[in-house]
Amino acid sequence: MITITGVRKKYRSGRKKIEALKGVSLTVKKGEVFGLVGPNGAGKTTLIKCLLGLTEFEKGKIQIGELDHKETRAKTITGYLPEEARVYTNLTGRENLLLFASLLKMDANKSRKRTAELLEFVGLKEAGDSLVRTYSKGMMQRISLAQALLNDPEIVILDEPMSGLDPLGRIMMIDLIKKMKQEGKTILMSTHIIPDVEAVCDRFALIHKGKVIFEGGVAEVIKRHAEHYVVKFLKEDSGLEEVNVKAEEMWELFEEGRAEGWKVISVLPGRGGLQELFKNIIEEHEQ
Amino acid sequence: MNAVLAFIKLSLLEARRDRLYLGLVAFAFLFVALALLLGMSPWGHIEEVMLHLGFAGVSVFTLIYAVFMNVNNLHRDLQSRVLYTVFSRPVQRWHYLLGRFIGTALNVIILALVLSFIIILSTWYFGYSGNIRWEALALGYRAAIQALVSGAFALVFATFMSTGISIILAFMMHFICANVSIFNLLIKSSKYPGWTKVLFKIIYYVVPDFRYMNIIDPVIHQRVINWELLGTSSIVYICYIIVLLIMAFAVFQTREL
């Protein structure tokens, strides 16, 4: 659904040119939730800006379905939720949706109907006629999501959708993303919050210093990681020690430990989660 | 056209709700009211003084409003990054600028019109002639169109400069446009080196000259108004506005958001 091939992007910072994206390539399949994961400043938002045609890039190609990302049609099948709500705060929620509907050239009746539907979908039916500047952060994020869904897009791009939300707001946003997935939408979501990836993503790419350094399925990676075990050893003069080990190597480790005078205290499945995996991959990449 | 209309509507709505813009309008009303009060002082020529001071206030505040709104609308939308959302939709950048400019222009015209009516009706009520001086509306029109030219300059600057510098430069341009004749004197003066004279010549010939719309005296002293000159200079100013808008579109198109 989204194909990004060899995208390179440089920024000018004073006299210097900084390479924000160093030949990024990735593919997002139809109907999946794809996570774009990486630390702050990795290039996630820049990649999304390139994808939406908000900024030019020097090399590479971005396709949305069969279309070039800059084509008007590509923009009509895409919905974008920026990092933090980016809507007009002097307008009401409903007025904002009507404004963006007119930018999509929706006719008046259709846009009024769609606006009412979406206000209900994001749980802002009652607050729809209040000025956005009076909204809480969670409400702002939800009105922004409603804006992204105005055209019932096939592709939804979410830039840090959970950033700054309270736990309840996060749960609500995760539910909304799951609902969108059930409706068959393709979702590209950038985040630096790893539990979010585990909660909603099918696949993800780890982006670091403008490069994709890992791409894979979330379930598969978690499963692979779960095949590790954490063995805790104790020795009177040396204290407690923890070792990560694969199942097939465990027997050998026990033998070695016993020979050196270590006692096995516990053996637990070593599911440290994606967070640990990301840390390891980034560290490996740094080396 | 949908997009342009949407941004016009947005500018009109925001002007009604933004505390900053409402504050500016309130200050404009206050200023004009004070000017009218001052005009009523027992110096004689009440009507003339009221019209003079009142429309000076209209000129000042329509100028401030046009410059400030053009710069602030764009910079606020850039800083709040709402333009990311806007341009992720099938909208051209020039749609946005044009819509915002026309919206601001309508706000300026409404402000000038309302203030002009207040001045004209006050002059009729407190004046000695008993006539409603409708021809004074031309002064409100003059203030509005000159403010729009300066507003267009402000928009050009705002597409690539910071808020403060854009506002200062726009006011400078207004001052230059109102005093272009100074540059003719500077060209003739022998004090300046050749390259400065070239610069003065460029300014003298390129910058719009606000003197051509100097209808203040004929309107206030009820002499013959040169409507033809008013019409011709309006066309010239509108052409300037169009050129400035095209420049703003070209610069904004290449700007990193």
Please tell me about this protein's structure.
The complex is a heterodimer of chains A (287) and B (257). Chain A is of the alpha/beta class and 287 residues long. Chain A has two domains: 2-215, Rossmann fold (3-Layer(aba) Sandwich); 227-286. Chain A has ten helices and 13 strands. Chain A has helices spanning 44-51, 72-76, 93-103, 108-121, 137-148, 167-182, 194-200, 218-226, 250-260, 273-286; strands spanning 2-13, 16-28, 33-37, 59-64, 67-68, 78-81, 155-159, 186-191, 203-208, 211-217, 228-235, 239-246, 263-269. A six-stranded mixed beta sheet of chain A has the order 6-7-8-3-9-10, sandwiched between helices. Chain A has a four-stranded antiparallel beta sheet with strand order 2-1-4-5, with helices on one face. In chain A, strands 12-11-13 form a three-stranded antiparallel beta sheet. Chain B is mostly helical and 257 residues long. Helix content of chain B is 79%, strand content 0%. Chain B has helices at residues 2-17, 19-39, 46-79, 82-87, 93-126, 137-158, 163-178, 181-188, 194-206, 216-220, 227-254. The two termini of chain B are 23 Å apart. The A-B interface holds A 11, 49, 52-55, 72, 75-76, 78, 80, 82, 84, 86-91, 95, 99-100, 102-105, 131, 144, 147, 157 and B 2-3, 5-6, 9-10, 13-14, 17-18, 80-82, 84-91, 256-257.
Strand-helix topology:
The complex is a heterodimer of chains A (287) and B (257).
Chain A: E1 2-13, E2 16-28, E3 33-37, H1 44-51, E4 59-64, E5 67-68, H2 72-76, E6 78-81, H3 93-103, H4 108-121, H5 137-148, E7 155-159, H6 167-182, E8 186-191, H7 194-200, E9 203-208, E10 211-217, H8 218-226, E11 228-235, E12 239-246, H9 250-260, E13 263-269, H10 273-286
Parallel strand pairs in A: 3-8, 3-9, 6-7, 7-8
Antiparallel strand pairs in A: 1-2, 1-4, 4-5, 9-10, 11-12, 11-13
Chain B: H1 2-17, H2 19-39, H3 46-79, H4 82-87, H5 93-126, H6 137-158, H7 163-178, H8 181-188, H9 194-206, H10 216-220, H11 227-254
Helix pairs in contact in B: 1-5, 2-3, 2-5, 3-5, 3-6, 3-7, 5-6, 5-11, 6-7, 6-11, 8-9
